[in-house]
């Protein structure tokens, strides 16, 4: 909702795609599909890219390994600078997968990586991002044999709630359209948005019923 208030044009574009009345309630199958409500699907996945609820994944190396790097990096502060093209990972090393950083990386997602743009979901995904394995090129739900078992349920659940809210209500920030507060991160078990310099994980919104 914070993103949809920051970008009212996205909220406005989403609303006409959704059914107008309760009698036309979409089915779980329709909401699970990527094609029945394509913009809702794109908005939902852009939320998962920009605001992954699980910020970081960790693994412990079961054996010695060497990770090849796509771009050489400097591992020491020595001069002249020495570049390396791989990282040695001894057995037992704690390896972190910085999910949010990967999802918002300019190198992978291009210069607009840090902008909320559901439109990128169509043809706008750059080649480096396409090489990321995982659901829709995102590590948000992890990947491989330990991929999130609730992925499909979680995505459809978000769509159920979002489609109901956006269909019935217009959301804007407390100060009105164009008055975007500075949003900060409230750290708890899961990251939540808050208004900078205010207490509590809350972002007050003004809500109007769709007539
Ligand atoms: C947007 C919401 C969700 C996100 C972003 C998410 C993300 C993740 C991630 C990153 C992992 C991998 C953790 C790891 O191995 O280190 C995971 C595992 C898991 N998730 Fe989710 N999850 C979500 C919702 C759910 C829901 C709603 C359920 C259940 C209904 C669920 C069930 C599971 C289970 C059972 C695992 C463990 C899978 C295994 O280790 O084999 N998740 N999830």
UniProtKB/TrEMBL annotation:
It is found in: Membrane. Residues 113-136 are annotated as: Disordered. Residues 114-134 have a biased composition (Basic and acidic residues). PROSITE patterns: CYTOCHROME_P450 (PS00086). Coiled coil: none annotated. One of its GO terms (molecular function) is heme binding. GO terms for cellular component: membrane. Its cofactor is heme. Pathway: Secondary metabolite biosynthesis; terpenoid biosynthesis. Heme binds at residue 148. Keywords: Heme, Iron, Membrane, Metal-binding, Monooxygenase, Oxidoreductase, Signal, Transmembrane, Transmembrane helix. Pfam families: p450 (PF00067). It comes from the Eukaryota. Belongs to the cytochrome P450 family. This is Cytochrome P450.
């Amino acid at each position: 909702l914070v993103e949809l208030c920051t970008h009212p044009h996205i909220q406005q574009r989403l609303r006409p795609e959704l059914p107008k009345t309760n009698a036309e309630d979409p089915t779980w199958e329709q909401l699970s599909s990527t094609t029945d409500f394509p913009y809702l699907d794109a908005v939902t996945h852009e939320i998962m890219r920009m605001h992954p609820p699980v910020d970081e994944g960790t693994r412990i190396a079961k054996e010695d390994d060497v990770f090849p790097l796509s771009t050489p990096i400097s591992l020491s502060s020595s001069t002249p600078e020495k570049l390396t093209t791989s990282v040695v990972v001894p057995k037992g090393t704690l390896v972190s997968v910085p999910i949010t950083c990967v999802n918002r990386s300019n190198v992978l997602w291009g210069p607009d990586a840090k902008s909320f743009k559901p439109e990128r979901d169509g043809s706008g995904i750059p080649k480096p991002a396409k090489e990321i394995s995982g659901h829709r090129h995102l590590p948000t739900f992890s990947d491989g044999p330990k991929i999130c078992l609730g992925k499909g349920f979680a995505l459809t659940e978000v769509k159920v709630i979002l489609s109901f809210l956006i269909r019935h209500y217009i959301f804007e920030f407390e100060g009105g359209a164009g008055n975007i507060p500075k949003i900060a991160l409230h750290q708890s078990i899961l990251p939540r948005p808050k208004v900078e310099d205010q207490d509590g994980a809350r972002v007050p919104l003004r809500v109007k019923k769709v007539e």
